[in-house]
Amino acid sequence: MSVAAVDGPGGADPLDRVPVLSMRGISKSFGKVQALTDIHLDIFPGEVVAIVGDNGAGKSTLVKILAGVHPADAGEIEFERAPVAIPDPTASRALGIATVFQDLALCDNLDVVANLFLGREITRTALDEEEMEREAWALLRQLSARIPSVRVPIAALSGGQRQTVAIARSLIGDPRVVILDEPTAALGVAQTAEVLNLIERLRERGHGVVLISHNMADVQAVADRIVVLRLGRNNGDFLAADVGYEDIIAAITGATEHARPMPEPVYPAPRRIGPVA
Amino acid sequence: MADQRRTPGSQTSLREANRGRIVDAVKKHGGLTQVELAGATGLSPATVSNIVKELSESGVLSTSKSMRSGRRAQYVTLAHASGLVCGIHFSQRHLRVALADATLTVVSEHEMPLARDHRSDNEIRRVGMLLSDMLDTVSAERDELLAVGVAVSAPMDAASGMVARPGILRGWEGIAIADAVERALRVPVLVDNSSNLSAFAEHRLGALRGQDDAMFLEVSDGIGAGIIMGGRGYRGASGSAGEFGHMVIVENGPLCRCGNLGCLEAIAGGDAILGSLKNRYPGLKLGDVIVRAMAGDDACIRAIADAGTHIGVAAANVASMFDPIRMVVGGHLARAGELLLGPIRQVVDRSLASRLAPAPEIVAGQLGPRAALMGALGIAADRSSTFPVVSVSPDLRTALG
Question: Which of A64, A101, B83, B154 could disulfide-link to B146, CB 3.0 to 4.6 Å?
Answer without folding.
Answer: B83
